[in-house]
């Protein structure tokens, strides 16, 4: 029954990302002639080298659609054990709205990226800050929501790594979840504040905060596991001493 719930939730998430991918590719198809013209003008005006313009053009068109593509491929081909399916069956209903909101934000960001590339320079300067702020704030609020949900998850990538010691210790997983929730929440709040003060720093703070949260989670979970094993072995050590006496 739990595996059925897991597959139902996974199917919903895959459908969400497939629809999002189709919409983003359609947007890229519509925007392609305008993006192409914008980069041709940039090369002719000497604002960009031809080779650089070629790479940037395809980055603008396909970088955002690559995100749901990677998620779809990981969902289809990444092996998942029965134990992980059982654990995820509880979490996956919470992930469906998160993935839906994430796709909406990605579509908004993709549209914004095409507009930033193709708008006339005067309009670009007029609306660039507003578009950037809207995307940054939306992303920070999404991550803050995710951080709030992590404490409710059971053995998920949002709440730590399925390391050998986490598989053996429920306490280690519990502490991992709390640390991940705290780390992601702090990162999101700092990014949200800096979006209004120093927008350029938001991507670095956001990505850096996620890396630190996961690295800290890895260390904390291992430390908790070793401490738990130490205290579990104390009665055995005392029993051995008594036997010797």
Q: Catalogue the unreliable spans.
A: none
Helix/strand/pairing category: mainly alpha
Supply Rg.
Answer: 23 Å
The count of helical stretches stands at 7
Order of helices and strands: HHHHHHH
In quaternary terms, these chains amount to: single chain
Total DSSP E strands: 0
End-to-end distance: 54 Å
The mean pLDDT is 80
Helix coverage percent of residues?
over 70%
For the sheet with most strands, the description reads: none
Secondary structure layout:
Blueprint: H1 2-44, H2 50-77, H3 82-118, H4 121-150, H5 164-168, H6 170-197, H7 202-244
Helix pairs in contact: 1-2, 1-3, 2-3, 3-4, 4-6, 6-7
Task: Give short descriptive properties of this protein.
245 residues; mainly alpha; 7 helices; 0% strand
Protein architecture, described:
This protein is mainly alpha-helical and 245 residues long. The protein folds into two domains: 1-118, no CATH class; 156-245. The chain contains seven helices and no strands. The protein has helices spanning 2-44, 50-77, 82-118, 121-150, 164-168, 170-197, 202-244. Helix 1 (2-44) packs parallel to helix 3, helix 2 packs antiparallel against helix 3 (82-118) and helix 3 runs antiparallel to helix 4 (121-150). The longest helix is centred in the N-terminal third of the chain and has 43 residues, at 2-44. The protein starts with a helix and ends with a helix. The model has no long low-confidence stretch (mean pLDDT 80).
């Amino acid at each position: 029954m739990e595996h059925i719930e897991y597959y139902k939730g996974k199917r919903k998430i895959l459908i969400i990302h497939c629809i999002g991918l189709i919409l983003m590719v359609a947007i890229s198809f519509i925007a392609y002639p305008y993006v192409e013209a914008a980069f041709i003008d940039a090369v002719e005006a000497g604002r960009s080298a031809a080779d650089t313009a070629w790479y940037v053009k395809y980055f603008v068109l396909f970088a955002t659609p690559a995100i749901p593509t990677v998620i779809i491929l990981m969902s289809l081909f990444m092996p998942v054990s029965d134990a992980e399916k059982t654990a995820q069956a509880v979490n996956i209903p919470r992930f469906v709205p998160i993935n839906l909101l994430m796709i909406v934000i990605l579509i908004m960001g993709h549209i914004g990226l095409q507009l930033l590339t193709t708008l006339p320079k005067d309009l670009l300067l007029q609306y660039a800050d507003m578009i950037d702020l809207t995307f940054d704030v939306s992303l920070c609020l999404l991550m803050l929501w995710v951080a709030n949900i992590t404490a409710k998850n059971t053995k998920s990538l949002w709440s730590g790594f399925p390391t050998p010691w986490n598989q053996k210790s429920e306490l280690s997983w519990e502490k991992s979840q709390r640390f991940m929730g705290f780390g992601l929440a702090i990162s999101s709040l700092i990014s949200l504040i800096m979006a209004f003060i120093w927008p350029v720093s938001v991507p670095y703070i956001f990505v850096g905060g996620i890396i630190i949260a996961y690295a800290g989670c890895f260390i904390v979970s291992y430390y908790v596991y070793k401490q738990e094993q130490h205290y579990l072995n104390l009665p055995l050590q005392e029993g051995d001493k008594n036997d010797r006496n």
